[in-house]
Design brief:
444 residues, Growth Hormone, Chain: A, 2 domains, 20 helices, globular
Length: 444
């Protein structure tokens, strides 16, 4: 019909990405999360079994955190600059495979430090690469729901990995966990290259974000990086995310330490409570690590697509406030009820926050950078702020636990969450309502 866009005139079949591409994106989220699960709590358990001291394990984990933080902004810039997001994602997956092989084969300080550096830098590239592929494949009005599906598949991948790695560690060896992660590389690469080039090239027919519009289709030149970094909405969002992570990152370690001090040993406590469901050969510590990783991930998987759809109706800020408000609630529950079974259940509430952050960080950054085109740089800036908040949290949480006790620490961490909520409520604009596309699909 006259006056309608070319995309609209040929119907949705012309603008929806192919089933193969969307399936590839689903599996990429699932498998990449599965590959990286072993670099968290399981790594500490593995190195403990290899007779590493707590100090050395702490340094190794810190190296991974620092590498990830230092790579956030350069990683986002790299993805913005690269023509082929698929190849960037593939290179990051291969780097994670190399890190897994290093840890599995040579569990000595030099190789393990190198592996942590590789994995931290690769994760900082892979996250914006997946976000960029999602932005190119999703229709504008469905971006929130599509990001929710990303979080669902990644959460399920982490939960499945936690279950499998817990059993592999118990029945085979902790070293086998990293061989299992490395074996997932091939299917992960297959998933990446199932995403069709023709679908990525047709991004301008589905969305008006400057990051997916080629200049020949009418896109304005991208803004300078410094202009993007100074955007008030992006800075407020990054600050709120940093405050949230300041309270959130050390909440679970503080709770675990409180239980250990109160009951004399968390694995023994779990064994005494759940002896009837534990196989004889399964160590309670394996079950505990797996459960505390899996429970929030399963809740995040259930909620994420619904949150993505809901944010199109109620706006971004309200959904963000709900996710951020869970942190002070969890902190208050930890402070007031020391029942061990209940505290494990409270940790599951973290799945709500995980779902909200997983969906909203790329979605809000997409809103803010709609005109600038520097989508992945924006994700890198928010990721850096989040990492700094998390790194500071673990240090502050330990100091507070020694100085004011566990209950005071829980309340202080919850206070940081309240500050994040206040910043969102008072200063953060509603990015969805104010977004005005500067570039649009070509008209027929």
């Amino acid at each position: 019909m006259p006056g309608r866009s070319a995309a609209a005139s040929i119907g949705y079949k012309g603008v929806i990405a192919s089933r193969a591409s969307m399936s590839g994106l689903n599996w990429l989220n699932f498998l990449s999360a599965l590959m990286q699960t072993g670099f968290g709590a399981f790594l500490a358990v593995y190195l403990t079994s290899a007779q590493w001291s707590r100090t050395d394990i702490g340094f190794v984990l810190s190296v991974g955190t620092v590498a990830a933080m230092a790579s956030q902004v350069p990683g986002g810039m790299l993805v913005d600059w690269a023509r082929s997001k698929r190849h960037v994602a593939a290179a990051a997956v291969l780097a994670i495979m190399a890190a897994s092989v290093l840890i599995a084969t040579v569990p000595r300080p030099g190789p393990v430090y190198t592996a942590q550096l590789l994995q931290g830098a690769a994760a900082a590239v892979l996250t914006p690469a997946i976000a960029a592929l999602t932005l190119a494949l999703s229709r504008q009005e469905k971006l929130g729901e599509r990001l929710g599906r990303n979080v669902r598949y990644a959460a399920v991948g982490s939960a499945v990995a936690a279950a499998i790695m817990g059993m592999v560690g118990a029945w085979l060896s902790y070293r086998a966990i990293y061989w299992f992660a490395a074996l997932c590389t091939l299917p992960c690469l297959v998933a990446i290259f199932r995403i069709r080039i023709v679908d990525l090239a047709g991004a301008h027919r589905r969305a008006s974000h400057a990051a997916v519009i080629h200049p020949r289709h009418g896109a304005a030149p991208p803004k300078r990086m410094l202009q993007v970094a100074r955007d008030p909405a992006l800075l407020i969002f990054a600050a709120a995310t940093a405050l949230f992570q300041l309270g959130n990152a050390s909440l679970l370690p503080t709770a675990a330490g409180a239980l250990t001090r109160a009951y004399g040993g968390l694995p023994d406590l779990v064994a005494s409570k759940f002896w009837w469901i534990l196989p004889h050969m399964l160590r309670p510590s394996d079950l505990l690590v797996a459960a505390w990783i899996a429970m929030p991930q399963l809740l995040a998987a259930a909620l994420s697509p619904w949150l993505g759809r809901h944010t199109q109706m109620v706006g971004r800020r309200r959904v963000l406030l709900v996710g951020f408000a869970v942190l002070p609630l969890r902190a208050l529950l930890f402070a007031t009820d020391g029942n061990p079974v209940a505290m494990v259940a409270y940790q599951a509430l973290d799945g709500i926050s995980a779902a909200v952050l997983g969906v909203m960080i790329p979605l809000v950054v997409a809103d803010i950078t709609h005109r600038s085109g520097r989508f992945n740089l924006g994700i890198g800036i928010v990721g850096l702020a989040s990492g700094l908040g998390g790194a500071l949290s673990t240090a502050v949480g330990g100091v507070l636990s020694d100085r004011i006790g566990d209950i005071g620490t829980f309340l202080a961490l919850g206070g940081a969450g309240l500050c994040a909520c206040a910043l969102l409520a008072l200063a953060m604009p509603e990015t969805h309502a104010t977004m005005e596309p500067s570039v649009r699909p070509r008209t027929a």
